[in-house]
Amino acid sequence: MLTTTFLNKTFANPIVLASGILGVSAASLARAVKDGCGGVTAKSVSLEPRSGHPNPTTAGMEHFFINAVGLSNPGVDAAVEELKKFKELSVSPLIGSIFAGTPEEFAVVTEKICAAPIDFLEINVSCPNVSKEFGKPFAYSTEAVEIITKKVKAKATVPIIIKLSPNAWNIDEIALAAETAGADALCAVNTISGMIIDCHSRKPILHNKQGGVSGPALLPIALKCVYDIYKKVKIPIIGTGGICSGEDALAMIMAGAALLGVGSAVYFRGSEVFEKICEEMEKIMEEEGIKNLEEIRGAAHSS
């Protein structure tokens, strides 16, 4: 009922661990599969190791989670070894993820990470909480996205997925630019910029002051982004942002998503959330007489 084909690869279900939630360690990624994910996305890695931002870097509230971890990672060379180990533990689809400071660097990191047995490569051009280090995210510029997509495509040995930002007012045009430049798929969306302030200390809670907002509060924004992108492009979309239940997941499919990125839901419902979402999806589908997800993909566009 939930089996999904994405770029000629079969997923047992459409739930994919979102990037950044469980790092790049093989054991953590394999555990996500055991907990019910149909596939996993590793944390974004860079050319060199990166320590990220000082604590506090995360905070959770009733309806949202906010983080400014700062893209901490062990570097692409170390990540390749962990991704190799994951494939020894699991046959589930594996999405590598990278970021860089220049288009040329994206190409270098791409070539290096493709030494790992990844099935797809996510290109993170949209992290909202490292602007001090990298300047304005590339995801705001059609020209930048086109250049990066072409450079990555020239070096990649697997299909590439461009991860887009909900902060971009013209996200559908950015998506089209990526498709035109050769992207095989899109991930929509990354977290959205936000801030929380402690009224007692009168200061922002995160050391970085601003961070990326995820969790249930992001869902309506992510749905709108996927809905708009689906109307503009023909390549598949990984709908990501705020999915915490079976209803959320089916709504994202109806907006046009092919796969579903789930991450912060672990904070709200525990590590069993992936299996819970699948069970809830199947229950609703049985009640509604839906035989498979293809029946309802993009269904919201016909109403």
3D structure, described in words:
- With 303 residues, the protein is an alpha/beta fold.
- The chain has one domain: Aldolase class I (TIM Barrel, Alpha-Beta Barrel).
- 36% of the residues lie in helices and 19% in strands.
- It has 10 helices and 16 strands.
- It has helices at 26-34, 76-89, 103-113, 131-134, 142-155, 171-181, 219-232, 246-255, 265-269, 273-288, and strands spanning 4-6, 9-11, 15-17, 39-41, 58-60, 65-67, 94-98, 120-124, 160-163, 185-188, 192-195, 197-198, 203-204, 210-214, 237-240, 259-262.
- Strands 3-4-7-8-9-10-15-16 form an 8-stranded parallel barrel, surrounded by 8 helices.
- Helix 1 (26-34) links the parallel strand 3 and strand 4.
- Helix 1 packs parallel to helix 2 and helix 5 (142-155) packs parallel to helix 6 (171-181).
- The longest helix has 16 residues, at 273-288.
- The radius of gyration is 18 Å and the shape is globular.
- The model has no long low-confidence stretch (mean pLDDT 95).
Give the topology, please.
Layout (H helix, E strand, L loop, with lengths): L3 E3 L2 E3 L3 E3 L8 H9 L4 E3 L16 E3 L4 E3 L8 H14 L4 E5 L4 H11 L6 E5 L6 H4 L7 H14 L4 E4 L7 H11 L3 E4 L3 E4 L1 E2 L4 E2 L5 E5 L4 H14 L4 E4 L5 H10 L3 E4 L2 H5 L3 H16 L15
Parallel strand pairs: 3-4, 3-16, 4-7, 7-8, 8-9, 9-10, 10-15, 15-16
Antiparallel strand pairs: 1-2, 5-6, 6-14, 11-14, 12-13
Helix pairs in contact: 1-2, 3-5, 5-6, 6-7, 7-8, 8-10
